[in-house]
Write a sequence for this structure.
């Protein structure tokens, strides 16, 4: 049992458990101490010193984010000494930081800028030259501007401790210290999987996605172009945060209404191809269960995970589902079936996808993603970029009229929606598989064992008399544990869902910053609310999917499906 | 590396020596540098794989310590002391003269591979300041004028530290 201790903060007495940090204790009574490098449970290393406070009897100022309270501690968060020190620290950080806030990608969304404002820094006293380091724009997903890096190490912690990819580390020493890859190469030449978790936690403009808004605007302004957009399941519960709504607000209708106003010719729902994925992947699983192919089947929706398995576990590539991700299936279907059905020249179609993800940008640029004869997806916007697009278009979000997705790909089921949260793909697959195998309707559609933010979830169930063991994994650090277990034959599953980002797509690298566990919880709850609110909750009942098979694809895993909806993987160098 | 398979087997011996040992990275790097004269990228990859430490972390350690090199070194290593006393006594002028004579800057290696120019914060020989070292030979009370004469002693000599 933890002991309680009595402390005083700014003259106010309180009792807190002994393992509480000064920072958390102060926040409990509404006293805010500024922090910068601190990221709860991920980066608790006290390197930036913005959070120092005065503790009576202590020789030095104490970093409040990493110091635990002790009995009788008397803390002053706003003493002249503490305030002066914090201002000095901020001054030193700002001294070499570029001052192009007006045109910076982060601008008003910048934690550093916000903190400087909050701390009343109005002048930077040092004449030091600002950092001028080369840009790393070696890849389609993430841009690193080390000039804007303040060495808080959040990105390094996320990459090394949470994702266990370890593409980046602190390199060099002293004034030359930067965040970098081995031999300071571009991310493209490192084991980086482009999950973007680093981008999501960066407090400044040092890490951003590669913006594609310009390409999208150009296409929208081109009268020759037929511009369609697909929106991923997870962004309907997070886009609102970019536009002033509370986390967990479902904004599907407003989003569609706004995108129509922005000028897209069609607004489609990626839920449609999530349902299509279930049809293909579900049948692929049954094939494998019948002895045709390796088990466990590993899901393939998450492009960060695909990059990871290609880099770190190439011996498992035959276990990975050959299904393309819903984004890529959509691109391929738009430029073939849709183009034909509506008599549109596929060369004039520009497909945009709005994704909670940075790795999706990498995926869309893969050379093999052109089975329609064109690049299947032309531009990928993150949730953050989608928010920018709506703002740039001058749309009054508060009063925007709700609208519905366009036919024929506006029809998505609850099974498609839950793809947005860890466990969703598994649950959607189980809903369909159970009914396809037994021919009987399920009594309850909720497979609650696979839901939630836990990193590794397991479930056992019976499918047509056969016992199945499945697992759901989110976050690459957890994926590593499971893959090592499979490699050592200590773990044995039939089917494993793996998402690169902690929490699944609701915690994607392209989501609004910061995706704290509390925020993710709210987004996840919203996903399941959205599922419950839909008339159809099983992928195989999606009438548009049924029609697509009838008119075009013929059957799951058929020849056309094989050509358009499936892909292969290549081992990558570390 | 293709030139010398024996060095690769020696590297394997080094790695084997430290297998399973906690905190072995620094020692492995030191031994490997002694073997190759520097730390080539592919050697660091082998070390990273063998110890099961991320490549970025291995490079992080290498880039932190001035002691480690990732570029091959010339046959002769000149080290100019840049400690406080030597600095006051004219270390920078010595450095400038050596740079001028050899046509290389700090950290560089002459095109013929004869010399690499480096510095160290203090040799502990302050009473002889300013001092320089060429390989294991110490020169005290160096003046810019003496630089050509010192360098001449080494220009034809073979490698001292990198040969195995």
């Amino acid at each position: 049992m933890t002991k309680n201790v009595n402390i005083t903060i700014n003259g106010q007495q309180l009792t807190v458990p002994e393992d509480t940090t000064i920072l958390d204790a102060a926040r409990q009574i509404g006293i805010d101490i500024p922090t910068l490098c601190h990221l709860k449970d991920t980066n608790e290393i006290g390197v930036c010193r913005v959070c120092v406070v005065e503790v009576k009897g202590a020789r030095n100022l104490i970093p409040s984010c990493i110091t635990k309270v002790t009995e009788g501690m008397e803390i002053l968060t706003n003493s002249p000494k503490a305030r002066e020190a914090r201002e000095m620290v901020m001054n030193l950080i700002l001294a070499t930081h570029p001052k192009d806030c007006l045109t910076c990608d982060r601008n008003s969304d910048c934690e550093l800028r916000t903190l400087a404002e909050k701390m009343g820094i109005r002048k930077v006293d040092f004449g030091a030259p600002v950092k001028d380091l080369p840009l790393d724009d070696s890849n389609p997903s993430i841009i690193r501007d080390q000039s804007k890096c303040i060495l808080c190490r959040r990105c390094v912690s996320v990459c090394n401790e949470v994702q266990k990819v370890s593409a980046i580390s602190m390199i060099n020493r002293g004034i030359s210290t930067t965040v970098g890859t081995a031999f300071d190469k571009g991310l493209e030449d490192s084991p980086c999987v482009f999950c973007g978790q680093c981008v999501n936690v960066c407090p400044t403009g040092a890490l951003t996605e590669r913006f594609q808004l310009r390409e999208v605007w150009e296409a929208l302004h081109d009268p020759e172009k037929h511009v369609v957009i697909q929106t991923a399941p997870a962004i309907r519960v997070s886009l609102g945060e970019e536009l002033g709504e509370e986390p967990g607000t479902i904004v599907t209708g407003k989003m569609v209404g706004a995108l129509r106003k922005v000028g897209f010719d069609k607004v489609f729902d990626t839920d449609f191809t999530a349902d299509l994925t279930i049809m293909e992947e579900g049948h692929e699983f049954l094939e494998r269960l019948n002895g045709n192919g390796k088990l466990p089947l590993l899901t393939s929706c998450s492009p960060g995970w695909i990059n990871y398995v290609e880099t770190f576990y190439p011996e498992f590539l035959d276990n990975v589902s050959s299904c393309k991700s819903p984004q890529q299936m959509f691109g391929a279907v738009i430029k073939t079936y849709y183009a034909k059905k509506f008599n549109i020249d596929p060369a004039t179609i520009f497909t945009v996808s709005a994704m909670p993800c940075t790795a999706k940008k990498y995926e869309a640029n893969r050379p093999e993603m052109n089975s329609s004869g064109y690049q299947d997806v032309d531009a990928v916007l993150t949730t953050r970029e989608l928010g920018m697009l709506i703002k740039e278009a001058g749309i009054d979000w508060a009063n925007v009229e709700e609208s519905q997705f366009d036919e024929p790909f506006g029809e998505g089921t609850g099974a498609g929606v839950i793809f947005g949260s860890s466990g969703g793909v598994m649950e959607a697959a189980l809903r369909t598989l159970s009914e396809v195998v037994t021919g009987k309707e399920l009594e309850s559609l909720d497979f609650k064992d696979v839901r939630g933010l836990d990193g590794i979830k397991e479930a056992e169930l019976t499918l047509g008399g056969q016992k199945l063991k499945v697992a759901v994994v989110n976050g690459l650090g957890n994926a590593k544990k499971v893959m090592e277990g499979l490699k050592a034959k200590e773990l044995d599953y039939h089917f494993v869902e793996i998402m690169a980002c902690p929490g699944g797509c609701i915690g994607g690298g392209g989501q609004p910053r910061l995706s704290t566990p509390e925020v993710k919880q709210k987004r996840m709850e919203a996903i399941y609310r959205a599922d419950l609110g839909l008339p159809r909750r099983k992928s195989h009942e999606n009438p548009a999917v049924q029609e697509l098979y009838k008119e075009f694809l013929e059957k799951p895993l058929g020849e056309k499906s094989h050509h358009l909806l499936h892909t292969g993987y290549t081992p990558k160098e570390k | 590396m293709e030139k010398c398979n024996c060095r690769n087997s020696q590297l394997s011996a080094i790695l084997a020596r430290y297998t399973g040992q906690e905190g072995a990275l620094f020692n492995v790097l030191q031994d490997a540098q002694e073997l190759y004269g520097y730390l080539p990228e592919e050697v660091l990859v082998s070390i990273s794989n063998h110890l099961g430490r991320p490549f970025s972390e291995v490079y992080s350690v290498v880039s932190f310590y001035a002691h480690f090199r990732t570029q091959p070194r010339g046959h002769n290593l000149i080290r100019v002391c840049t400690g406080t006393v030597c600095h006051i006594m004219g270390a920078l002028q010595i450095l400038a003269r050596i740079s001028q004579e050899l046509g290389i800057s700090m950290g560089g290696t002459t095109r013929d591979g004869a010399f690499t120019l480096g510095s160290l914060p203090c040799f502990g020989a302050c009473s002889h300041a300013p001092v320089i070292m060429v390989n294991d030979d110490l020169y005290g009370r160096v003046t810019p004028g003496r630089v050509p004469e010192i360098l001449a002693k080494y220009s034809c000599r073979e490698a001292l530290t990198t040969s195995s």
